[in-house]
Design a protein that fits this description.
Blueprint: H1 25-36, H2 40-49, H3 104-125, H4 138-144, H5 156-168, E1 178-179, H6 188-200, H7 211-228, E2 236-240, H8 243-258, H9 262-265, E3 273-278, H10 284-291, E4 299-302, H11 312-324, E5 328-335, H12 347-357, E6 360-365, E7 389-392, E8 405-409, H13 414-419, H14 452-485, E9 491-493, E10 504-508, H15 520-526, H16 529-540, E11 544-550, E12 553-559, H17 568-582
Parallel strand pairs: 1-11, 3-4, 3-5, 5-6, 6-7
Antiparallel strand pairs: 2-8, 7-8, 9-10, 10-12, 11-12
């Protein structure tokens, strides 16, 4: 595949400076819009600013929004300048919007009002005085609103109300005190990119219908492979609908590499295949095995040490056991950043074993891949460059809006050979451009969402150094939390030592349990503490943090930090809130 080249498309060392502070930005925006939108930008500026050339001056007699809330007229002037009444959404329906005749003005007014709802939500998401969640039980929400679908259309006033209601009960995942999942935060550039992607509304399978997005995927995946350590960024890859699918891609490709006949003849044509992964790995490995007909019994779980890292000696022992039974080991999936402990498997040792037994090495770095952006922390993935494939989810540690997951493959062409079906109605061989940019045939999907643009645009806005600062800050916050609670009364760490990722795992011990002996009764009572505190958090709406049991360990809190909006004060608040909500248990 020919390189798209440098300049606009490439990731350089730009300092990120721009004209965002320039008072003439709005004027420049109008000029750009007029250039690229065939007149629509001129009309939009006129509607929003009252003048096609410049934004409305402060202190004007008419608010900038007023002109956009006018009803459609019947005059022939384009754009018209006649007097109109305000838009009344109670009498308008979706059929009155574009592409309806005279639908331009109500469309712009409607979308501006939708945008106002979204912007208000965005601002509230960062306001610590607002709730993280306005929790209602499912039956309450079902009874409070009519969510059912009807035969007859509702008017646009009701549609706008539905938008407001939906966001009212949505979880503010960008809130600085939302710590519940690995994917948190709300990046403004990423959000803007997502809006643009939805506006473009195209598919990623061919260059002819997604030229810019296809080139950006090529550039971005190549950059990610360079960061992994593959020479010159060589190899292949694709953005998929999440880490679970990326992991399944890796399993498919590993199977095809060893037994290419499986593509046509199925599992009946190959021997019993065995995959290996740690007992702390993500459940998607077993799901993938089930979906591919390999079977969950063919996924062998390798023992971990007390910190949650795969034990290489146990991996080699289980490989030899499988071979002695006549089975064929075909995949080892190491984890870089486990879901609960945030552990990093010893990739160099795993790579040595995979090389010794000629087994495909996959690294599930969905959670930990972001640390490759940090000079301070990337050592935790030493050996990832020896992997045959890597899963990396920028929508986790890098804060890219959901969804954004990449599967990177070291051997170029293998993914294409594994998945292509030569559909002639999409992938014609006599097109007038370089067919290597028609990437759809290497994907499982036909319809594939544009997931690359938000990552690319954020990378351009932040630079690699910006992502590095993001990662370093989040890990520093995790260390701050660990240092506070490791010797604090009422807390017990699930494992000893500073966490490797932002995962901080601990029990809160209420006063009533602190003097009890460490026996079955105490464990039984302790197992109920985290669920009750979590429920109270949600009912008050103050914060959210996850909990779970693991192995023989009863429910404990798993704190994760990936939101750069969080501060030391938010960590302090979390500790105080846990103690406030759990002291009476």
């Amino acid at each position: 595949m020919a390189s798209p080249g440098s300049g606009f498309w490439s990731f350089g060392s730009e300092d990120g400076s721009g004209d965002s502070e320039n008072p003439g930005t709005a004027r420049a925006w109008c000029q750009v819009a007029q250039k690229f939108t065939g007149g629509i930008g001129n009309k939009l500026c006129a509607l929003l600013y009252g003048d096609a050339e410049k934004p409305a001056e402060s202190g004007g007699s008419q608010p900038p929004r007023a002109a956009a809330r006018k009803a459609a007229c019947t005059c022939d002037q384009k754009p018209c300048s006649c007097s109109k009444v305000d838009v009344n959404y109670a009498f308008l329906h979706a059929t009155d919007l574009l592409p309806a005749c005279d639908g331009e003005r109500p469309t712009l007014a409607f979308l501006q009002d939708v945008m106002n709802i979204l912007l208000q939500y965005v601002v509230k998401s960062f306001d610590r005085s607002t709730k993280v969640i306005d929790f209602h039980y499912p039956n309450e929400l079902l009874q409070e609103y009519n969510w059912e679908l009807a035969d007859q259309p509702q008017n646009l006033e009701e549609i706008l109300m539905h938008c407001q209601t939906t966001l009212k009960y949505a979880i503010k995942t960008g809130h600085p005190r939302y710590f519940n999942q690995l994917s948190t935060g709300l990046d403004m550039v990423g959000l803007a990119a997502d809006w643009l992607t939805s506006t473009a509304n195209t598919n990623m399978f061919t260059y002819e219908i997604a030229p810019v997005f296809v080139l950006l995927e090529y550039v971005t995946l190549k950059k990610m492979r360079e960061i992994i350590g593959w020479p010159g960024g060589s190899g292949d890859g694709i953005f998929s609908p999440g880490g679970a699918i990326s992991n399944m891609y890796a399993m498919m490709i590993a199977r095809f590499k060893m037994f290419p006949e499986v593509k046509e003849k199925g599992m009946a044509a190959v021997p019993r295949l065995i995959a290996f992964t740690s007992e702390h790995s993500h459940f998607s490995l077993k799901k993938g095995a089930a979906a591919l007909g390999i079977g969950t019994d063919s996924v062998i779980l390798i023992k971990c040490d007390e910190r949650g890292k795969m034990i290489p000696s146990d991996l080699e022992r289980r490989i030899l056991e499988a071979k002695q039974k006549g089975f064929v080991p075909f995949l080892v999936s190491a984890t870089a950043g486990t879901t609960v402990y945030g552990a990093f498997d010893p990739l160099l040792a795993v790579a040595d074993i995979c090389k010794k037994y000629k087994i495909w090495m996959h690294v599930d770095a969905a959670w930990g891949g972001g640390l490759l952006m940090s000079r301070k922390h990337k050592w935790k993935l030493s050996g990832v460059e020896r992997a045959n494939s890597v899963t990396w989810n920028p929508h986790k540690m890098m804060g890219v809006p959901l969804q954004c997951s990449a599967l990177l493959v070291r051997e170029e062409g293998l993914m294409q050979n594994c998945n292509q079906m030569h559909a002639s109605y999409l992938f014609q061989q006599d097109k007038h451009y370089d067919l290597s940019y028609d990437t759809g045939d290497k994907a499982l999907q036909c319809g594939r969402h544009v997931d690359v643009f938000k990552l690319w645009l954020m990378w351009r806005a932040k630079g690699t150094t910006g992502f590095e600062a993001h990662v370093d800050k989040c890990l520093e916050l995790a260390e701050y939390l660990y240092n506070i609670i490791k010797n604090r009364e009422g807390y017990e760490m699930v494992f000893d030592g500073k966490p490797q990722h932002t995962n901080v795992c601990f029990w809160y011990i209420p006063p009533s349990l602190r003097t009890l002996e460490d026996n079955e009764e105490r464990m039984s009572r302790l197992s109920k503490v985290a669920p009750v505190i979590k429920a109270r958090m949600m009912e008050y709406g103050t914060t959210m943090v996850s909990y779970q049991p693991l192995g023989d360990k009863v429910n404990f809190f798993r704190m994760v930090i990936s939101n750069p909006a969080a501060t030391h004060q938010d960590i302090d608040f979390l500790i105080e809130e846990i103690e406030r909500l759990g002291q009476d248990l």
